[in-house]
Amino acid sequence: MQFSTFSEQIVKIKNLELPGEAFHLKMAPIQRILELKMKAREMESAKKAAVLCLFYPKGDSTHFVLILRKTYKGVHSAQIGFPGGKYENNDSSLEETALRETEEEVGVDQNNVEVLKELTEIYIPPSNFFVQPYLGIVHTTPEFIPQEDEVEAILEVPLAEFLDPKNLVTQTLSTSYAKEISVPAFELQGHVVWGATAMMLNEVRELVTEIV
Description:
Layout: H1 3-10, H2 21-25, H3 33-43, E1 47-58, E2 61-69, E3 80-81, E4 84-86, H4 94-106, E5 114-118, E6 122-124, E7 129-137, E8 151-158, H5 159-163, E9 168-173, E10 181-188, E11 191-193, H6 195-211
Parallel strand pairs: 1-7
Antiparallel strand pairs: 1-2, 1-4, 2-3, 2-8, 5-7, 6-7, 9-10, 10-11
C-alpha cells in the first residue's frame, strides 16, 4: 500500500476498539499466560516497559520497524522485538518511555513521531514485565541508527508482507514454559517472530486490516 493512502487511513485507528487479549492469545505459546499475568498483578512485583510499533514511508510503500537484539545473558537475547524498553523514574509516562527508547535504539527523533493509539498491555512472564505497546507514525523516511550495544540489526517490514496470510506460520520451539511445542508465529524478513512480539503484532494486524 502506498504510504500516502495508508497515512490517510491509519488515523481512523484512533476510533477503533482494541481487539485485546483475545488476539494476543491467538499467538501465545500457551494459555497459562493469563494466569501468570493475574498472579503478577496481585503480587505487584512486575516491572514496567513500553514499546512502539512505528509505521513510516519507504519509497511509495508503508513499512514498520522491528529490531534484532544483541546476544547477551538475558531472557530476550537475540530476539526480534519492537524498539522500546524499561520505564525510568524520570519518564513522565509510558508513552514517553516508548518514544525515548525508540529514539535511543533506532535513532528516530521522538519529536517527529505521532502516537496514534495505546494498544493492549501484555505481560511477559520470563522477565516479569508488564509491557505497554503504542502505535505511531512518522511521515518521512527515517534514517535508522542502531544502538550499538543493544541492537544487532534493524528489520524494515513492508506492510504488504505483514498482512500476507502466508506469513502466519507455526514453528516448533522450546520456550521457558515447555519444550518442543508448536508456537504460532509470523515469518517476516527471513526471521521467525513469536512470543510477546507476535502477540502484539497480531493485535496491530487486526486493527490495520479494519482500516486499509
